[in-house]
Amino acid sequence: MDWKLEGSAQKTESHVLQEQEVTLEDTGEDGISESFQLLQIDVECEHREEMTTSNAVWRSKNVQRKQRHWEKIVAAKKSKRRQEKERRKANRVENSGIYPQHSKRFLRSLTKERLLEAKHSGPRLCIDLSMTHHMSKKELSRLAGQIRRLYGSNKKADRPFWICLTGFTTDSPLYEECLRMNDGFSSYLLDITEEDCFSLFPLETLVYLTPDSEHALEDVDLNKVYILGGLVDESIQKKVTFQKAQEHSVKTARLPIQEYMVRRQNGKNYHSEILAINQVFDILSTYFETQNWPEALKKGVSSRKGYILQNSVE
């Protein structure tokens, strides 16, 4: 009885072992293949992790290099601003006894006071803008720039003129160009009118400044109104402003360039007395303050015009 049970148990164990062997034989090749695949996946994952780490390190170094470069630029700018601030401070200390320092608000108030005073008691200057309808966009831009520079010079003058822009409409291309190019143009302290300068003032008080006049300007008279033709003409049409003055029987005058300056020899043999309106104004303003024509002409007539002062030759 016991022998039969032992035999039966041995048969059972033998049968189980045989089944396991058959199972291993059936799955041997597939199991090995799967193992290699898992191993390959592990290797690829490790390689990817290494590449990711390497790229991250490279990007990190690149970012750090750019950050260091940017910090150097910022530091250099701060250093430059600090040096400029110290230089201005040193200049203020050096000139404190000569030029008293005032706040910007005080200086603006002083400028406004001078300009308003000129409106009542200063010399008057009209810019005749009635000839701009034939001008190109480029010429209008140049004229707007000249008006800006003229107004800027007048603001800085110790004895400013009162300026009036005549024949000037707010819906004109020039007005739009002045608004575009000149910050704060709408708040300029000057008169703007659509009226013509010849109908705005008595004709006997008007003096049209034109390079084609036969009469040299001798002095700036407070009882006169001086007119500058607001004309930028690249085609160089001659005697436009002179003829306009004659049509209205208005006196004309030219700057005394011929009286105080001489022609300078140059390669192009170029000599011109035609100046931008801001250059003419600089001459008038300087003369009005200094009563010295050579000094005034030197400021407004550049050497490119082909003229130099007589004493420069001597």
TrEMBL record:
One of its GO terms (biological process) is tRNA N1-guanine methylation. GO terms for molecular function: tRNA (guanosine(9)-N1)-methyltransferase activity; tRNA binding. InterPro entries: MT_TRM10-typ, MT_TRM10-typ_sf, Trm10_B_MTase_dom, tRNA_m1G_MeTrfase_euk. Keywords: Coiled coil, Methyltransferase, S-adenosyl-L-methionine, Transferase. It is an enzyme of class 2 (transferase). Residues 76-95 are annotated as: Disordered. The keyword Chaperone does not apply. It catalyses: guanosine(9) in tRNA + S-adenosyl-L-methionine = N(1)-methylguanosine(9) in tRNA + S-adenosyl-L-homocysteine + H(+). GO terms for cellular component: nucleoplasm. Residues 111-308 form the SAM-dependent MTase TRM10-type domain. The keyword Transferase applies. It comes from the Eukaryota. Its EC number is 2.1.1.221. S-adenosyl-L-methionine-dependent guanine N(1)-methyltransferase that catalyzes the formation of N(1)-methylguanine at position 9 (m1G9) in tRNAs. Probably not able to catalyze formation of N(1)-methyladenine at position 9 (m1A9) in tRNAs. This is tRNA methyltransferase 10 homolog B.
